[in-house]
Every structure is written in C-alpha cells, then in structure tokens.
Amino acid sequence: MLKTLTNTRKTWLSRILIAFFCAHIALGAAATAFADDAKPDASGAATGDRSNVQDAGGTPFVVPAPIDPSAPDYAEAKKAYDAYQQQVAREPLAAKLADDVGHVRLGTNFAWTLQTGYLVLFMQAGFALLTVGLVRKKNAGHMMMLNFAAYVFAFLAYYAVGYAFQFGGVAINAAPSNIGGAPTMNHFLIGSGFWGFLGGKGFFMAGPAYDVSANCLILFEVVFMETAGYIIVGAICERITFWAFLLCELFVGALLYPISGCWAWGGGWLSQLGNSMHWGHGYIDFAGSSVIHGLGGFCAMALAIILGPRLGKYGPDGRPRAFPASNLVFVVTGTFLLLFGWMGFNPGSTLGSTDLRISVIAVNTNLAAVAGSAAAMLFWYFKFGKPDITMACNGMLAGLVAITAPCAFVSPTSSVVIGVIAGIIVCVGVLFNERTLKIDDPCGAIAVHGYCGWFGAVALGIFADGSYGQGWNGVGATSYLGQAGLGVTGLLHGDVKQFLMQLGGATFIVAYSFIFTFVVFKGVNAVKSMRVSREVELEGLDMPEFGMLAYPEDPVQVLTTGTTI
Amino acid sequence: MKRVDAVIRPSQLESVKQRVTALGVTGLTVSEVRGFGRQKGHTETYRGAEYNVDFLPKIFLSIVIPEELVDPVVEAIVEGARTGVIGDGKIFVSSLDEVIRIRTGERGVSAI
C-alpha cells in the first residue's frame, strides 16, 4: 500500500515537471514571436540615456518631435522641437553629458527600488514572528513552515506566469519611467488599449522580461506579491494541511493577485477608467491597500470560512473562547519588523528616489502607524479595562495597511486621521468577526488587511489634497479640474468622481478576491478536505505534518495549552 | 523521619529557603507546578474573548527531615511564605518509611 502510494506520488511529480518544462518551451517560443519590438537589454549597457533626463518638475530634457500636424498646439510644439535640435547641434557635449545624466538617474532609481524591495522582502521575517507568536506553541513549527513555504512556492508561481499576467502589458499604459519604462513588456493577452485584462509577455521571466528594467520591476513586485501571499497564513493557520496551503499559495501567486494586479498596476482597465470613461484619474492604489492587502485579507476570509473555526474556538453556547498568544515578544518584534519593512513598501512604490515625495510618504506611513496603534490601544483600554498587546500591534498594522494606498497623496495630518480610523476599524472588525460572523481568524488578518485595506483605498478618494500625482494614469497632465498642476484630488478637496472611483474600485477588487477564492477552494475542499483530522489538530500540527516539534523540550506544556474542545 | 511538602508562591521561595536552611536542613527539592485551591483563578480577555486563568503558577517544595525538626521547619515555611493574601499555599506533613542514599547505600536518618 505504502509502496503504491509512493509510486503514485512519483508519477505525479514527474508529470508536473514535464508539464512545467513543456510550458516553458511553449511560452518561451511565444515570447520570441514579438521579436520586432523594443529589444530587451539583459546587460544594462543600453539602458539609460538623455531620454531619461528630466527636471524636478518632470519636464523631459528631450523635446519630442510633434507627430500630428492637425493638433491645435502643433506649431508651438514644432517650434520647441526645432529649438531643442538647434541647441543640441550647438552644444553636442551637453547632449552627450545628458546621456550620462540619464544613465545615472536610472542607476539612482534602480538602487532605491531594489533596496526598498529588500526591505519589503524582510517583512516576511516580521510576519513569521508576528503570526507564530499569536498561535499556540503546539503549532509553532507548522506556522513557520507556512510562512517559509509561502515565499518559496508563490515566488515560483509568479516566476512562471504571475509576472507575465500582471505586468506583461505594463509599458502600454503604465510604463515605470523612473526605472527605464520596461519597454519590452508591451502586450496584453486579453484586451487592448485602455481595456487590458491580462498581461501576456514575460512568462518564466524569459524573452522580453530578460531585461534590466523589467527585472528591476520584477524584484520589487515579486516581494509585493509575497505580501498578499503571506497575509492568508494568519487566518487559516492551526488547521490547514500543508498540501492545501501550497495550492493556496500557487493560486495567489499565479492567478488571484496577478489578474487584479494587472487591472490596477499593469496598465489594465481599472487604472485606465479615467482615460476611457473620464472617472477621475481612474482607479488609484499607490502601494497596495486594496491591490495587496484588501485582496489578501478577503482571500483569507474566504479560506477561513471554508476551513471553519479551530476545534474548541466556540463553546457549546456559541461564545468565542480565547487561545492566548504563545509569545508576545515575537508579536511585538514582528510588528516592528513589519513597520521597518513598510518604509520600503510605501516610499519604494515611487520606483525612484528622484521622486522627492518619498520623504512625505515615509512620514505619512509612520504617522498612520502610530495613530492606528494609539487608537487601538485606547479603544481596548476603554472597552475592556486593559489595553491588549496583540491588538495594539494589530492597530499599528491597520494604520499601515490603510495609509498604503493614500500615502503619496495626503498630508501628514490626514495620515493621522486615516490611522486613527483604521485603528478603530481593526478593533471593531476583530470583535465583529469573532462574535457576530463567527469566523475564526487567529491573527486578525481579515480585519487588519481586508477591512483596513478596503478602507485605505477609499480614504485616498476622501483625503487626497491635489499636491501630488499630476497626470496620474495619464489624466490631467497639464491641468485637472480646471487647475494647472493639480494632482490627485479627493472628496474633501472637491473631486467627487475620484471618490466614487475609489469606492467602486476597492469594493470590486475585494469582492473579486473573495468570490474567486471561495469558488475555487470550495471545489477543492469538496474533492478532498483541506483540513487536518481532529486528532492531528488536538495534538498540534508539528509532529503529524512535519515529524518534528518546534519546541521538543516542553511537550507537556505545549500539548496542554488551549486544547479545550 | 518526616517529609514536609509545601505549595507556595513562586515569589516566596527565596525567603522560605533562607529560613529553612538556617535551621540546618541540608536538602530541598523544588518543582514548578500549576494548580488552584481556594484562590481559584481570575478572568481575563484576549482579543475580546474571555478566558479563565485558573491554574496559577506555584512552587512545590519537598523536604525530608528527622522528626524533631518538623515543628521549626513548618514554622519557618509559614513565616517565609505568608503574605496574608489568599493563595499563600499549603503545607503537607507525612511520615516516611525509608531513605536511601544512592551513592553509598546508607539507609535511615544518616542518609538524609
């Protein structure tokens, strides 16, 4: 019996490997079919010249040749172009120097984007500590393995297809000009123009994606995807089998996140509604309140509902029972690591340090974090008589999640207000999930990332003050709402359309995430239960799933904590 | 020979130890235990869910002594462990049939 089982597993493994190999060949061939486009620059020697030079206000050094003679400003544009050409002819050395300046500008931005990406990467460690501290010791090994495997498998899924789905058409509407524009990523698999639904270039990060600009984007975006990937861990832990978890991670890394990520960040239809339907600037989510956190939180919610609560979480009378955190030191340290990582998450999303708004973004991010934490601490202090350490930490993360979308567009004071509201949302959300919906969410992932993520994207539409984001998503480059130089603006500063766009867009993304996840995994669960057996859950998942205990020295204490059913 | 067991507050272990050793007691074994007596536990909330902390951490100490030391030792423990607040613990005195020192094979009082 055992032998047959092993053989079946081997057969399946080899089938998967063969399928993987075939897909690589096929998609690689598809990639070369676009050989007539911009050539990928794998060495970096051809990226960065005078066309990448611009002044502080964003005016480019190179004046482009006017194309359309029927345009009303053609004569003016032609004059400017001719003047530029004469200037270049008169001072060739200055033009040559501009090539160097452009290269250095990209170098500066590459360094910034990669370094902030590394900070985001390290949020994995913070999240692992936070979540392992919040669960019972008997599942500590399992918890660490989930966090670890999330990184490994979601990364591979994103490498194979996720990146291509999300950013395969980024150069069409949303070229990241600060890091060279990734010009080779210019094809939608489904849709075209302002109505892109799925990217279609860069499978296996080969062909057009084998390019320095595209790779800079890959590093930054893959660690973002990982964030959505590990959010779900907090809600499904202590009861999910390892194989089911791997399926969840492949699903998030290959499909769930890249698809909606394309709509919002890959130049897809949601971000282009400003151009196509004149709805403000189209949907905006600066660093991912909804695109990353809302999506992950509502995916986690669907999975937590399918799995059901942990054994003993609800008594016979339906009242929730507490499974106290096993290590508050980890919880607080983990939260601080996440705060530190967020200094890459938000300011890094400019994809360039030549965008000096990064200082405002960093301050806003920190302010929302402390405001969220203070609000949660005080809320709990008044309601229960003692501030809850884990909720104080959740409050900080709530503030961070909520400021992630609006961080670039709002003032420091607005950030404090957003943080305070998020801190209260997370407290009410945790109580609502636990007492009313009776969804067991051990680490508060749904309230922190889901609810506050949705709120953050909406908050952008309320608090954006117009000081930043001129021409965002290609809307209002010269003037917006009749004002020259006005950036992204929210409800409080007079742009109702942008508010409605944010409200609709954020709701759409979280609903998409919940429904897609629920349908897929309800099906998986019907075929084979994703949950461990009752005996395994009582014993703790470490030994049955991995054959080792995280804390072999104190098995008795580990096994007697919180096993009331 | 008598065996004196006591359940005391962890915070009182040091003062009990000082008083008992001052009487010439040469050996003392302690274990970290959890339990409840009349003190019972108390209710706390964790993320909005109430829970009882009913098994409180205590120190269980065990001393084997010749019969004549029982009264002074019991008195020393009471003195060292008492705070006057509910939850100070209990002392159990029992008779002991035999003591054997493993290293030498000695038996009885001389093995204590």
Could you characterize what this model shows?
The complex is a heterodimer of chains A (about 575) and B (about 110). Chain A has 2 domains: about 50-90, no CATH class; about 100-165 and about 215-560, Ammonium transporter AmtB like domains (Ammonium transporter fold), CATH 1.10.3430. The model of chain A is unreliable at about 1-5 and about 30-35 (pLDDT under 50). Chain A has 19 helices and 4 strands. Chain A is globular, with a radius of gyration of 25 Å. The relative contact order of chain A is 0.12. Chain A is mostly helical and about 575 residues long. With about 110 residues, chain B is an alpha+beta fold. Chain B has a single domain (about 1-110), classed as Alpha-Beta Plaits (2-Layer Sandwich), CATH 3.30.70. Chain B has 2 helices and 6 strands. Chain B has a 4-stranded antiparallel β-sheet, with helices on one face. Chain B has a two-stranded antiparallel sheet with strand order 3-4. In chain B, helix 1 packs antiparallel against helix 2. Chain B is elongated. The N and C termini of chain B lie close together (about 10 Å). The interface between A and B is medium-sized, with 17 and 8 residues.
Largest two-chain interface: A-B, 17 and 8 residues
**H-E order of chain B:** EHEEEEHE
| Name of the level-1 CATH class of chain B | Alpha Beta
Radius of gyration of chain B: 17 Å
Q: How many separate helices of chain B?
A: 2
List low-confidence stretches of chain A: 1-6, 31-36
Q: Beta-strand level of the residues of chain B, as a percent range?
A: 35-45%
Mean pLDDT of chain B: 92
Look at the helices and sheets of chain B and give the structural class: alpha+beta
Helix content of chain A: 55-70%
Query: What structural class do the secondary elements of chain A suggest?
Result: mainly alpha
Give the class-level CATH name of the largest domain in chain A: Mainly Alpha
CATH superfamily of the largest domain in chain A: Ammonium transporter AmtB like domains
How is the CATH topology of the largest domain in chain A named? Ammonium transporter fold
